[in-house]
Every structure is written in C-alpha cells, then in structure tokens.
Write a structure and sequence with these properties.
Helix content: 10-25%
Distance between the termini: 43 Å
Structural class: alpha+beta
Order of helices and strands: HHEEHEEEEEHEEEEE
Strand content: 25-35%
Largest sheet: 6 strands, mixed
Mean pLDDT: 92
Radius of gyration: 17 Å
Number of strands: 12
Number of helices: 4
Shape: globular
Low-confidence stretches: none
Strand order of the largest sheet: 3-6-7-8-9-10
Length: 188
C-alpha cells in the first residue's frame, strides 16, 4: 500500500508577487518562492534555531541604531519571476522595519545556518542569488565534526557581482565588517 501526498494547487503552479501578497501568514510560513515555485523548507532543528537566534542577538546588539538583525522573514530578491528567500538571519536597515516586502536594498547581511539537506542550496544557490541581488555580506554557518560551528564570511565584489571569501572563524569570532561584532560560538 502506498500513500500519495496530496499537494494543494497553490503549490503546483507558478506564483506571482500579487498572489503571494494575498496569502495568509500560515500559507507563507516554512516556504520560499524560487522562480515563482513554492519550495517547502523542512522544520529546522532546535540547534539550528538556537544558532540563528544567538547570531541574530549578537548582530543586533553590535549593529547600532541604524540596523536591525532578525530571523524568519522574507527577503524579496526579485518580483518576476517571484523569488522570496527566508534567510536564517538578516541584518536590515532599521528604518525599513515596517516596509513590506523587505528588498535587497534594505539588507546589509544575510546568514544561512547549514542543515542536513540544505548544503547545496546554502553553499551555492542562495549565495549566488544573494550576490546577484546585491546584498553586500553573506555568512554561512557550518556544523564542524568537532561540534563547534564554523562561520564562513563573504563580501560582495562589485566588479564581478559575486561573493569573495573573507574570513573563516570558529570559537570566539571577532569581526570588523560590516561592523565590529563578537560572538562566542561556544554558546552555540
């Protein structure tokens, strides 16, 4: 006996920005839109959520009054075809807190915490999309075999429109860009 999954019609057809704007918060939770198609994200682990929250709190505290750092909201990379990503952490202009949708010009930094099953997407696909959208900084957090996470930081190269490697950190992370921040990865 096999069980077939019934997928709602709204998940099988290309979605426009106008349609997405009419959806409920419940319909938008746990999904991203890539080239107009719904991609369901598996529920994150407690460890994943904790790492994102610790980073968001540290970034928010270090960012000053001009920037906010938050988790779990859409960043509209493109309207046609619709591309909405939901980074694990985003640092965005404080004066854009009530602007919806949040657009790349509002965002300074995105962070993705890599989980089993998201490796290729976080390492390659999202990095490329964020760079093409013009987001200046990208951080990727990987779980190391030793247990301590590793943060890979990237800076947008304006000449190529791609990210270039910046720093690799583990343990106590002390970075000066995009602003001075210190995060103890041991807390993660």
């Amino acid at each position: 006996m096999t069980v077939e999954m019934v997928v709602p019609a709204w998940m099988r057809e290309q979605v426009t920005a106008e349609q997405y704007a009419a959806w409920t918060e419940e319909q938008c939770a746990g999904i991203e839109i890539v080239d107009g198609m719904v991609q369901v994200s598996p529920r994150a682990s407690k460890r994943h959520n904790r790492q994102a929250r610790i980073l968001a709190n540290a970034l928010d505290g270090a960012a000053g009054s001009e920037w906010n750092a938050d988790t779990d909201f859409d960043v509209r990379l493109q309207d046609v075809p619709l591309n909405n990503r939901r980074p694990d952490v985003a640092v965005y202009r404080a004066d854009a807190i009530d602007v919806t949708p949040t657009r790349p010009e509002h965002v300074l930094l995105v962070v993705e915490v890599v989980s089993p099953g998201s490796e290729t997407t976080d390492r390659i696909v999202k990095a490329d999309q964020y760079a093409r959208a013009g987001i200046q900084f990208y951080w990727r957090v990987e779980q190391a075999v030793t247990g301590a996470p590793i943060v890979y930081t990237y800076v947008l190269d304006p000449a190529t429109g791609r990210y270039r490697d910046d720093e690799i950190s583990t343990g106590l992370v002390k970075l000066t860009v995009p602003f001075p921040v210190e995060v103890d990865l041991g807390e993660m």
